[in-house]
Amino acid sequence: MRNLTELPPLSLYIHIPWCVRKCPYCDFNSHEQKDTLPENDYVDALLNDLAEEMPRVWGRTISSVFIGGGTPSLFSANALNTLFSGIRALTALPPVAEITMEANPGTFEQEKFHDFRKLGINRLSIGVQSFNDQHLKTLGRIHAADEAMRAVDIAKTAGFDDINIDLMFGLPDQTLEQAQHDVQTAIDLQPTHISYYELTLEPNTLFAKHPPVLPVDDDRWTMHNNGITLLEQHGYARYEISAYAQPGKRCKHNNNYWLFGDYLGIGAGAHSKISFANDAQIVRRWKHKHPTRYLSGAHATPLDVIGGESSISDADTAIEFMMNALRLNEGFPIPLFEQHTGVSLSRWQGAIDKATEQGLLEQVELRLKPTTKGFNFLNDLLELFMPDNELSVRYPVFPLKPE
Fold first, then answer.
1. Which CATH number fits domain 317-388: 1.10.3660.10, 3.90.1170.50, 1.10.10.920, 3.40.1390.30?
2. What is the 3-state secondary structure (H, E, C) of the chain?
3. pLDDT at 15 over 70
4. Looking at domain 10-256, what is its CATH homologous superfamily?
5. pTM of the complete model
């Protein structure tokens, strides 16, 4: 029986689904910009969506905001100003909250990003993926390597002190030397955070339909290990499967996901996870994915943006919690499990004992954390917490984005 005596931190996720061109590896809810962006209509829809969600979280403070996509930086500063004015009117958003926006190098303009910074957006996540022009072309990116480097300079000049660079390895025809060069180039730009993850061929993508030839397993493993070594040598500590940060620069928003915090999701295809102390439920909600469908529903009376809703069962609590928390190399404080789930961890003591016996999990004082083996074979560790020990979905190693 779930017993939620306190509620976890609450974040806000905003999805802006348009991009200049759909990349062949991308399985996120993104749509190519065909005509003029419906900025005003979409901002109105987002604020209507948020107003409809607010009764579920009255009195709770928004600890962080993440604007994902698509390519949110396609929107104008004026549109985002209207959006944030509305958000601040509807929510308790502290002035010091971390506010992250995703951006692609091909969308950077000095004045525009200076205006974004003035709006209170204080962290950028730049989708670089590679500093090799041939690899960028293969990945369907609209920018070149020199534009990626220029984007980081523009962001710093605009006043962004917290910058993440997304970087992939295991690209088609990529050599060990090229992968190492990408990591070193990212380090030389001195962002505060680097996400370094393997290209995976996701279902329902162009790459899945027409698979490119990727480096062999041994080479991908070497790229992975060489990248980790180089990043850590330059002060980027690995704190999550694919996240590396300078001291004090971890992503607070993603950390809330990983520790089973709550989040409101607004926008086409956005997901929410909300805990309710009054009836001891944890509910997931998601919005209609296609922007046209979402826009029509957001302007309907009553609002019709909900694509679906489900509650997390007591039996599924452990896997729902563990598939995120065990992505962190420090694991989680044991008391936090019951605080954020309302269920005692003792129910899964058998799974914990088995994982410990197999060398996948260890307890360090009051923390449970994956061992090096458990970190490298996370799916094997997660299987132990699944009902009936059957993991029907293989979870990605890319930092989770609720879309």
1. 1.10.10.920
2. CCCCCCCCCEEEEEEECEECCCCCCCCCCCEECCCCCCHHHHHHHHHHHHHHHHHHHCCCEEEEEEEEECCHHHCCHHHHHHHHHHHHHHCECCCCCEEEEEECHHHCCHHHHHHHHHCCCCEEEEEEECCCHHHHHHCCCCCCHHHHHHHHHHHHHCCCCEEEEEEEECCCCCCHHHHHHHHHHHHHCCCCEEEEEECCCCCCCHHHHCCCCCCCHHHHHHHHHHHHHHHHHCCCEEEECCEEECCCCCCHHHHHHHCCCEEEEECCCCEEEEEECCCCEEEEEEECCCHHHHHHHHCCCCCCCEEEEEECCCCCHHHHHHHHHCCECCCEEHHHHHHHHCCCHHHHHHHHHHHHHCCCEEEECCEEEECHHHHHCHHHHHHCCCHHHCCCCCCCCCCCCCC
3. yes
4. Aldolase class I (3.20.20.70)
5. 0.94
